Amino acid sequence: MRRIAVYPGSFDPITKGHTAILHSGLVAFEKIIVAVLNNDNKKALFSVAERMEMIRESAADMGADPKRIEVDSFDGLLVSYAQRRNARVILRGLRAVADFEYELQMANMNRHLNPEVETVFIMANDAYFYVASNLVKEVTRLGGNVADLVPEPVLPRLLAKFDK
Ligand code: PNS
User: Fold this and answer.
1) What is the mean pLDDT of residues 129-154?
2) For the CA atoms of the chain, what is the radius of gyration?
3) What are the C-alpha distances in Å from 142 to residues 19, 35, 128?
4) Structural domains in the chain plus CATH codes
5) Closest CA to 128 of 92, 90, 94, 91
6) Is 95 among the residues known to form the active site?
7) I need a surface site. Which of 48, 50, 77, 103 has the fewest CB within 10 A?
8) 9-16: average pLDDT
9) How far is CA 16 from CA 1, 76, 86, 126, 127, in A?
């Protein structure tokens, strides 16, 4: 059976924390669909198209087989999207304890909505366990250096957004 996982998120922007999860995910799954939430209500720095482009560039930068990583966007319920894409697994990364409650709640809500879709967690690489898109944006806005925390293709776009 082909093992396909959906790796959903805001990815505003993708960080090295995300690419580390992708890297590990490829050990377990044949194909990973990175699915960017298309949510007009959420104030995002990058458009969905920009975010998808940065994910594609970062995946290429990782040297991943392009047939094994697909980048897409979705709206509506995640479990419905997963079902449409024939994916039985939702992949999420877990960093600190702070992530746990939110992730447990989402995983159980998604299980309630569709018991056939499993959520699988990969523990964040300890080098990136403190890295979050929101912090990366804030630090960049305030002039800090995040060059080691985001994939190479992301950095110039991030700096440009803050006129740095
Ligand atoms: O990167 P994020 O912002 O932590 O990702 C959150 C995401 C996209 C996984 C979550 O908001 C989501 O799945 N939204 C889709 C709507 C949905 O299915 N909601 C019910 C699940 S609890």
Assistant:
1) 97
2) 15
3) 24, 29, 20
4) 4-161 (3.40.50.620)
5) 94
6) yes
7) 77
8) 98
9) 30, 27, 27, 11, 9
Beta carbons of 77 and 113 less than 8 angstroms apart: yes
Atom of ligand 1 nearest to the CA of 81: 18
Atom of ligand 1 nearest to the CA of 11: 1
**How do residues 18-67 score in pLDDT, each as one tens digit?**
999 999 999 999 999 999 999 876 689 999 999 999 999 999 999 999 99
DSSP conformation class of 85: T
Helix, coil or strand: residue 10: coil
Tokens of 145: 């250096």
CA dihedral defined by 30, 107, 127, 154, rounded to 10 degrees? 70
Catalytic residue flag (residue 42): yes
Residue 164 known to be catalytic: no
Distance (Å, whole) CA 33 – CA 139: 29
Closest CA to 4 of 89, 81, 77: 89
Q: Record the tokens describing residue 35, joined without a space.
A: 């699915």
Structure tokens at 154: 């992301």
12 dihedral zone (left: phi>0; alpha: psi -120 to 50; beta): beta
For 9, other C-beta atoms within 10 Å of its C-beta total 18
Triad 74, 110, 34: Cα angle to 5°: 35
Dihedral, CA of residue 134, residue 135, residue 138 and residue 141, to nearest 10: -100
